[in-house]
Structure formats: structure tokens, C-alpha cells
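Example record

One chain of 110 residues, shown exactly as stored in the release files.
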Amino acid sequence: MLSASATTVAPLSTSQNEDLRRASSKILGPERRSFQVAMTLEYCRGNPRQAKRVFGWKRDTIELGLNEQRMGVICLEAQAAYCGNRLCVGISLHTYVAHRITERPSGAPS
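Predicted C-alpha cells for this chain:
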């Protein structure tokens, strides 16, 4: 059985490893996943577990990126649509939608 150090393609110095982590933290969303997949393929032979061990990245993120690359489809996050903010606080979504439908713009004829 191969040891963990034997499964990496090219050993990275501590400073190189930190540089890759820092670069990954500056990128968001699909671009980050694409970068992490590229580094995983290059330095960890496409193994998400090895990338987690070497870089500290989440396995599910790398697996999603590998699937995006394989399928040619980019997954969008709901956070991008809502910017992480709640639509409304203290009322249900149905109440909010009903209120928005019945609300009339100011100056509209009654």
C-alpha cells in the first residue's frame, strides 16, 4: 500500500502550500472550485481526500468541482441569488408575497 506522501505528484513546500490556500481564499464560487480542482488534479492526482489533507479544502467542494468539470455544467449557489440575506424577517413567505401582490404603488388610481 502506498503511503500518503507517495500519493502526491510533486511535494510542496510549506510556503507554496500557504500560497495556494491564500489564493483559493481570495476567489469565490465556481472560480474557486475550478482552481481547487486544478490544484487537486496537479498535486493530488484528483483525490479529494488527499486535497483535504494537503490543502485543508472541503472534500464535498472538490467533488462538486470535479463533477462540474466532468459534466461541463456549473452549479450556482442560492446565496448568489439572495446574497445571503433573508427575504423578510418575522413573517412567512406566503404573507410577504400576498402583501406584495395587493400593495399598490403610490400615485396609482384606486
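Notes: Residues 11-78 form one domain.
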